[in-house]
Every structure is written in C-alpha cells, then in structure tokens.
Prior knowledge:
The chain is mainly β. Helix content is 9%, strand content 49%.
Amino acid sequence: MKPYFTVILFLISSVAFAQKQSLGLFDDHKDIGNPKNAGSAVYDKASKTYTLSGSGYNIWFNRDEFQYLYKKIKGDFTVTANFEFIGAKGNNHRKIGWMIRESTDEKSIHTSAVEHGDGLTVMQWRSETGENMKDPEGEIFFPEKTFEVLQLKRVGKKLTMSVRHIGGPLKVVGDHVMNNMPDEALVGLFICSHDPELIEKAKIWNVQIKTAGK
C-alpha cells in the first residue's frame, strides 16, 4: 500500500505545483470585496500573457470590489506591463492597472495606476483603512488618454505612476507618498467592471517586476 500512497501524494503535489505555476510571476488571485459575479486570472505560459476577468461596483468610497492578481513585495520596486480590455466597449469607468495594497481586505489602503474604459489615465489612493476616497484630493489626472503601458514605482514611501505608448517614452502621471503603507505589501494587476452586473476581461502582457537589488 505504501507505493500507492506515495504515487497519490506525488500527483497531488504535482497538481498543486502546476496550479501555482499557472499564475506566472504572481502568488495568488482573489475577488476583493465579494463582488456579485466571480472573477478569474489565467496565465498563458507560451505567450506570457495574463487574462483577467472581473466584476465589482467600483474601487472607490470606503470599500472596493474587483479581481486582483498579486504577490508580496518588500521594499522598493518597479512594475510595468501592457494592458488592453477585451471585447465590446463597456462602462466608461471600468478599470485596469497596477495596485499596491496593504491587504486583501475590501477597505484596505492602496494606491492604483489606473486606465479607465474611456482611456482616462489617473493615479488614485486610499490613505487610511476604511476612509472614503476623495475627489479630487485622492487622485491625479493625466491630460492625455489611452496609453498601452502602465508603470507603478515605489522608492521608500513614494509611489510614482508613469505611462507610455508602445515604442514611446515614459511620461510621469504623478507621485504620492503613502506613509501608512507597510514595507511588505501586495502588488499586482487588477480589473473592475464598475458595474456589479457585468464581468469585464483584459489581457496583460510584457509584465515586468523589478525589486531592489534585482
């Protein structure tokens, strides 16, 4: 019987490893805030492309709903990727981008590098757990719209959002100091439909995660 159980344990371990590997550079994914419609995250190893599906009323006010694909990062980092919504035009306020977040709690502090469905490019944040995000105090709008590449960078407590077109130079959207953000935090990709009845999809590729000393 012992060889039989050894084989079973090996198969279980292999499946678990494969599932973890399927997330590519990231540790886990989760629906934040229990949206009405469940989201998902899929990694295509051949093309190195991530496909996110997500719903959610918004990432705003004092709580959030969205799909999050993330990993823990300690210290300084620079994360960059190409983003594109999939399918017919949805809500103008649907969102994709990068996010640093203290935790997966729906009321967590966070800073996001965001592109909306209508191309609006903005950096947004919640500085205190459970506080209402503020308009315009808690965001920086960029005068240009519809960029393919989004970047979020952290140096110390300062976070900087930059954008660019494919083949073009980086343009700084703005920066913000998050004094309450812990040194080790969650960093990842997100999608929010801005409509609890809908599920939106996006593909993300050329994902780069650079940490201090690497």
